[in-house]
Amino acid sequence: MAVSEASAAPSLDGGGPTRVSWQARLAIAGAFAGGAVLLYLLLRTGADDVLQWDLRFGPSFERRLRTVAAIVLAAFCQGVATVLFHSVTHNRILTPSIIGLDALYVLIQTVGVAIVGARFVDNSDSILQFLLQTAGMVLFAGLLYRWMFSGRFSSLFLLLLAGVVIGLAFRAMSEFLQRLITPSDFDALQIKLFGRLGSVNTELLPIAAVICLVVGVIVWRRRHVLDVLLLGRESATSLGVDHKRELTLALVLIAVLISVSTALVGPLTFFGFIVATLAYQLAGDWRHRATLPMSVLIGVFTLAAGQFVIHNIFYAAGTLTVIIEFCGGAAFLAILLLRKGNL
After folding, report:
1. 109-112 own/partner pairs: CB under 8 Å, 24+ apart
2. What pTM, to 2 d.p., does this model score?
């Protein structure tokens, strides 16, 4: 895949004057995201198929509150990771899944089911299994980065190419093992491989929140360095930035965020691509001070509004993440065709 710096190179005037400042845009996006969350929490379809306010704080509200927490964490992980990935690769058509983390997650689940049976996916929301899966994916990414960046041919693009090849190998092994397991185990595995927002273990949320908080603080403190990385390797190096160190740190943080999101709610391959692409168009500023929070707010709004529609309009007759993956894949192909020759 050809990679060009032209698509992500920012203008040096800060994006030029706009009618609405980036702070106001963030405030508007925050209002939309907060409104979508409140609608999902408090507005329900009654017995007469009419929407009505539900202010009872019972088990149903606690379940919706748990789903909102999963939505915020997934939006944060996918939005921040994808914006960072676009910044270091200088290409806005790529997604972090190209490294092969999603394929590794599928392989871990498939191997576990092949060895233990459906009990493996039944216990996959335990704290121990969550930590082991996250650690395994981060370790894989770390070894891949170390291997590709320590050799004489160290290159980001070789890393991406290696990620594609390894991801294909993981998928091939997963498909082979899936042909060997029983139909009942295969059904249980397929349910696990779809993104899930409404069935997250409550005990995992504080752990994921702490990891996201730590990564968020690191990323926000380095937002100005990330702005410099957008100018390209030569420009960043001439401005005193250790390009290789910053690139490696950003890739490690991306691996942590994607690993946490995947282990918590399942694969969301194109969701980050959707919210990051919208954030670039709506933020009004190319700098990370605007694009990072905008991507998170758009992610929260998209997931919360989607959950509200799925549960109250279609009565949960469908999985939101499947719809998001379909729309994201269609948007990916559309942008790929519209930017033909200018990736």
Report:
1. 109/189, 109/192, 109/193, 110/173, 110/174, 110/177, 110/178, 110/181, 110/189, 111/177
2. 0.84
